[in-house]
TrEMBL record:
Keywords: DNA-binding, Phosphoprotein. It comes from Leptospira perolatii. InterPro entries: CheY-like_superfamily, LytTR_DNA-bd_dom, Sig_transdc_resp-reg_receiver, WalR-like. PANTHER family: REGULATOR OF RPOS (PTHR48111), TRANSCRIPTIONAL REGULATORY PROTEIN YPDB (PTHR48111:SF17). The modification 4-aspartylphosphate is found at D56. GO terms for cellular component: cytosol; protein-DNA complex. This is DNA-binding response regulator. Residues 5-116 form the Response regulatory domain.
């Protein structure tokens, strides 16, 4: 038993029981606390040392985002909600993942594996250092935005700024593609075109077409196709 402590903040009793059962099946949590009210959830998080929170956004008493606003040093958070429109704001607050309802157990298991890895690293080092390896903060059009590297599928440039194409959304950030590229780990991201950088974790294959053109096929839900310039082929 690793001794990890989890809190579930969810007002739907059926979903709360499901999440609790999944965490119990995971087998790596010493304690699991369930709460059905946002205000009570904030109180518990402010008084207790918690490693991971699974939390809805729309809660009685106080929203999940309001809880995060009131925590100086929040634990790792996975947002579990039925509204995809919250995805962008979720990553603005530095949550480590966003899981849509109805929750797929296999998808949740991936999130829990990520959480356990981050918790383990935090036990041997500073949490900010861990977060720096998890993602980085970009200057958004309206405010700074923390984005996890694993959620970025690819980055494109437009006339003025760059666009992060994540698994849930498109986020416009200030800066050239070169500026954005400098904030990314070279072990995971590659420039493939003057207007595109891709996350190699999402690369399926590269296809050659007559006339000398190449296209990178990505493994995201959109099955994105990104042009590849010949001068960058050796980088992939």
């Amino acid at each position: 038993m690793s001794g990890h402590k989890a809190v579930i903040i969810e007002d739907n009793a059926e979903i709360s029981r499901f999440l609790e059962a999944e965490l119990q099946r995971d087998g790596r949590f010493e304690s699991i606390t369930t709460i059905d009210d946002g205000t009570e959830g904030l109180d518990v998080l402010m008084r207790s040392k918690v490693d991971l929170v699974l939390m809805d956004v729309e809660l009685p008493g106080m929203s999940g985002f309001d809880i995060l606003k009131n925590l100086v040093n929040p634990p790792y958070v996975i947002l579990v909600t039925g509204y995809d429109s919250y995805a962008k704001e979720a990553f603005d607050y530095g949550t480590i993942d966003y899981v849509s309802k109805p929750v797929n157990p296999d998808r949740l298991a991936i999130s829990l594996d990520r959480a356990h890895a981050l918790i383990a690293k935090s036990m041997t080092g500073d949490k900010q250092i861990v977060l720096d390896t998890l993602g980085t903060t970009f200057k958004g059009v309206k405010r700074n935005i923390f984005v996890t590297f694993s959620n970025i599928v690819y980055i494109s440039s437009n006339a003025k700024h760059s666009v992060l194409h994540t698994i849930n959304d498109q986020i416009e950030v200030i800066g050239t593609l070169k500026d954005v590229e400098s904030k990314l780990p070279i072990s995971r991201f590659r420039r493939v075109h003057k207007q595109f950088v891709i996350n190699m974790e999402y690369l399926s294959h590269i296809e050659y077409f007559s006339g000398g053109s190449h296209v990178a096929y990505l493994k995201d839900d959109e099955k994105s196709q990104i042009p590849v310039s010949r001068i960058y082929l050796h980088e992939i």
